[in-house]
Design a protein that fits this description.
Blueprint (H helix, E strand, L loop, with lengths): L35 H11 L10 H4 L4 E4 L8 H9 L3 E5 L19 E3 L6 H10 L1 H18 L2 H21 L6 H6 L5 H11 L4 E3 L1 E3 L6 E3 L9 E3 L6
Parallel strand pairs: 1-2, 2-3
Antiparallel strand pairs: 4-7, 5-6
Helix pairs in contact: 3-5
Length: about 240
């Protein structure tokens, strides 16, 4: 929500106020200060407090403007879609990354107000919103309707069909288990190890990110945020 971060009007970078009496044009903060220690660096070095105590959806929904920042979960389905469901209009941070699960359905100026990846047009977009409250209300209404559809069973079925049947299906169909001849040539190795060895022989390096039991009911994630649990498969490790 727009609630206390100062931006430089020329290049949209965080700047320290040189005149105590000067007021920034925007008031915005991070509402979920998970990285509070990092945020404190801004306050110590630049005099800018970029986060405060956590604010839940009920409190955020009282603001007429919402904004999401790409990065560590800033434009996740929960972060973006939740804000789009609020009565206020969303300023959506459009980055070079693609939010694949809804990006093709949501359109700029129809469901949200787009903001460029470097935030250089944020002030322009804000001024437009201030001058066009009725258009903002229409955008917000269309966004609410879009989110209701995106979270519905028909859309989930459509997405499942598109991603798993249309795109992933042909890949799965190409899988071939080891033939008897290959089993004889690679005694003691299962299909997975043989496939990995083929990748390694072609110069690829693979990384195991999850491990599942044979029953498929329990899986363990091996690569976690801020943890170095990387288990790399290399050709010499398979011998």
């Amino acid at each position: 929500h727009l609630d206390s971060m100062e931006l430089n009007n020329n290049n949209s970078t965080i700047s320290k106020t040189t005149r105590p009496q000067a007021q920034p044009w925007i008031d915005v903060k991070f509402t979920g200060p998970i990285l509070q220690n990092l945020h404190e660096l801004f306050a110590d070095s630049l005099g800018v407090n970029v986060s405060d105590k956590r604010m839940g959806p009920r409190g955020m929904s009282k603001y007429k403007y919402q904004i999401d920042f790409g990065g560590g979960g800033g434009t996740t389905w929960r972060g973006t879609l939740t804000k789009m469901k609020f009565p206020g209009v969303l300023f959506h941070h459009e980055t070079r990354m693609k939010d694949w699960f809804y990006d093709d359905y949501l359109k700029p100026w129809e469901h949200y107000i787009p903001v460029s990846w470097d935030l250089s047009d944020l002030r322009e977009r804000y001024d437009w919103a201030e001058a066009h409250p009725e258009e903002c209300a229409k955008i917000s209404q269309r966004a609410t309707e879009a989110v209701e559809y995106i979270m519905s069973a028909p859309y989930m079925e459509q997405l499942h069909k598109e991603l798993f049947h249309t795109k992933l299906g042909p890949i799965v169909q190409q899988y071939q288990p080891l033939s008897e001849e290959e089993r004889s040539a690679t005694p003691g190795q299962d299909t997975l190890n043989v496939i990995l060895n083929r990748y390694h022989n072609d110069g690829f390096v693979t990384e195991e990110v999850a491990a599942c039991e044979d029953d498929g009911d329990s899986c363990a994630v091996l690569v976690r945020r801020n943890e170095y649990l990387h288990q790399r498969y290399r050709s010499n490790a398979m011998k």
